[in-house]
Design brief:
This protein is mainly β and 368 residues long. The chain is built from one helix and 28 strands. The strands form nine sheets. The chain has a four-stranded antiparallel β-sheet, with no helix packed on it. A four-stranded antiparallel β-sheet has the order 15-14-17-18, with no helix packed on it.
Length: 368
Amino acid sequence: MRNKIIGERQRWLVSGAAVVALAALITGSVVAASAAAPVNTGEPTIKGSPLVGKDLTGSAGSWTGTAISYSYRWLRCNENAANCVGITGATSKKYRVISADLGATIRFEATGKNAEGTAIGTSNPTAVITTTGGVPASTAPPKISGTATIGSTLTAATGTWVGDAPITYSFQWRRCDAGGNACKDIGQATKSTFRITDKEAGSTIRIEVIAKNSRGTGTAFSEQTAVVPGGGGGGGGGVINLPGGGKSIDVKDVPAGERLIVNAVVFAPNPVKSRTKPINVTITVKDTRGYFVRNALVFIRSTPILTSTPTDAPTQTDGKVAYSIQPTSSFPLRNGYNVQFFVKAYRKGDPTLAGVSGSRLVQVATAK
């Protein structure tokens, strides 16, 4: 009897399972094993030397998921492995390092995709890219700071470099055309600073930095400066800001209606006590607007003629010209006496009695 009951129970269990299975098939509730979206369980890796001209090889790393397809991308990052940007065209497992990568780090990115989703894995960065053999190479160009005007001083920064340490640097300033081309070395301009002269008017300036270590030498050039005012358009170079204050213009740029002024005349010694020693005279010329005037010609003569008369000379950027004149044997040496001088500043080519010329009578004291 007992065996019969157990047998009946087993038949019921089997029949119950069959009924459930049949019901599931009828209702469509049987669920297949679920597909899994990609998950990166082991980050991608890079093999190879971080040197220009060498090949890097990327590996996708470890993943879980079903029916995954992969795509790849190489990233160029800064030296701290941040600010990464995809490298155009670098979408295979191999990448050859180029000069544009100098000073950067490289990462390899793998993207896993299937019907259930997408995931991305990124490698650790390489070391900073450098050159084969450790020869110095520029990773950021030199820079120039300062204003490109005559009389101003420019300062060069070396930029950044890679290569075996220590690296030493030298400089060469170059004068270029308005577009920054046809550059030529400026003689003796081999320091990190350079004071612009009239010779640079109408030109641009670049700095060449030469880096040297035990492995070799590398060079790099800055962008050109703005065009130094002057050297074109018939003008005299525009306005120059003088280091001690004030502004300088070329005599060619003094407009109609303005005139030159003999602003200051300084004698040394004063009073004059000797006929054998020269008298030094410094003359400053401005215009009626207050600008210091360069390239104005200056005439000076004692009245009556009691000294030598120097050849007319042009004023410098600061509006000054200096003369050394010699007293004659008839130059009076008396206490309380003065010798007068006529001084005239003028522009070459102007009519004698017209133009922008200005004049002044001055005097120097004498003594026994």
